[in-house]
Amino acid sequence: MFERIAILGAGLIGASVALAAREAGAARVVALYDANEAVRARAKEIGLGEIAESAEAAVMGAELVVLAVPVGAMGAAMQSIAPHLAQGAILTDVGSVKGAVLNAVGPHLPAHAVFVPGHPIAGTEHSGPDAGFASLFHGRWHVLTPFDESEEGKTALGKLVAFWEKLGARVEVMSHERHDVVLAVTSHLPHLIAFNIVAMAEDLENVTETEVVKYSASGFRDFTRIAASDPTMWRDVFLNNREAVLEVLGRFSEDLAALQRAIRWGDGQSLYTIFDRARRMRREVIDAGQDTPAPNWGRDTKGE
Ligand code: NAP
To answer: Quick check: helix, strand or coil at residue 120?
Structure first.
């Protein structure tokens, strides 16, 4: 599909794009650059692709450039490559927030390149080049938030849809505003809650010497997986999707207060109604192919 693609940032997502693109035959040459020297050395060791010693060298002659750095680093990364992008290069990103990335990248975009922002709704709690794997995008949604309605913009969008589909993803196109609200509900708020619960439990364990870790299998463990996610990435997500997150957080706090009141007043009917609605949502997630119905996420509980 592409003769040469360049990926900036060789962490979980950048490494996965590199491996998936090569496995799918979507690019003949995959060049990567990471600002972190140790990451570059490791990426070379595990054979992620052609590891460049500068961002400029990586993007030289690339028809597609993928920005796979933390959201807060997108502007700087773009600034470093802008003058070196090939004529007609397609630029995309994988940032978890779309409005802020458009604001950071847009002003540096040269007239001879086209930018189509994107976000793979796929990931794990691990980071770094070793965390990447080729099947990460299989069956997962990839959201593109195009804004350029020119012929070049439409052609670039078409090529990116084909690229992500080749990597195994299902592609959805929406506005960046819609993306940021939807993701605030489905991803950003759940992570914030997990960070909060785990940090609170850690604090309680220290203060009261309760056995949180020992009995963590009863629900807490699943929050610890989400809360193990990269702190730099998540700091940037919350700093850059402030309005949408604060909006859904306000609603969440109100509903939590209603649950608190129901518990205080022994209102079992309200509790049951809410829990029952929530339980049905789980069925919808499984029916949509977003998770497995296996009990305990298919974990082998016998061996634990
Ligand atoms: P990661 O594993 O931490 O990798 C990011 C890499 O980019 C790090 O090695 C980092 O180096 C490097 N970097 C920082 N600034 C750079 C620059 N200016 N030029 C080149 N490299 C630079 O992060 P990730 O999980 O792959 O996330 C990358 C992007 O994907 C983020 O925007 C995130 O929002 C998005 N995303 C993540 C997930 C997920 O589940 N993790 C899912 C979907 C989308 P240092 O470590 O030295 O800073």
So the answer is: strand
> Which ligand 1 atom sits closest to the C-alpha of 74?
18
Q: What spacing in Å lies between the alpha carbon of 8 and ligand 1's midpoint?
A: 9
Contact of 52 with 31, CB cutoff 8 Å: yes
> Which residue owns the Cα nearest ligand 1 atom 23?
11
Pocket lining: 230 vs ligand 1, CB cutoff 6 Å: yes
Nearest CA to ligand 1 atom 1: 11
Summarised one tens digit per residue, pLDDT across range 17-39 is 999 999 999 999 999 999 999 99
> Would you say the CB of residue 61 lies under 6 angstroms from ligand 1?
no
The total number of residues written for the chain in this structure: 304
Establish whether residue 13 lines the binding site of ligand 1, counting it when its CB lies within 6 angstroms of any ligand atom. Answer: yes
- Tell me phi and psi for residue 4, to 5 degrees: -145, 130
CB atoms within 10 A of CB 181: 18
Query: Is the C-beta atom of 69 inside 6 A of ligand 1?
Result: yes
Average pLDDT of the segment spanning 48-66? 98
Place of tokens 């919808």: 284
Q: In 3D, which of 221, 231, 232, 217 has the Cα closest to residue 198?
A: 221
Question: Span 2-174: which CATH code?
Answer: 3.40.50.720
Q: What spacing in Å lies between the alpha carbon of 18 and ligand 1's midpoint?
A: 14
Q: Where are the chain's structural domains? A: 2-174, 178-266
| Closest listed residue to residue 48, CA positions, set 118, 147, 131 | 131
pLDDT band at 194 (very low <50, low <70, confident <90, very high): very high
Confidence of residue 295 (pLDDT cuts 50, 70, 90): confident
Which residue lies with its CA nearest to atom 11 of ligand 1?
36
Pick the CATH number of 178-266 from 3.40.50.720, 3.40.50.1820, 1.10.3660.10, 1.10.10.10: 1.10.3660.10
Residue nearest to atom 47 of ligand 1 (CA): 36
CA distance 80 to 84: 8
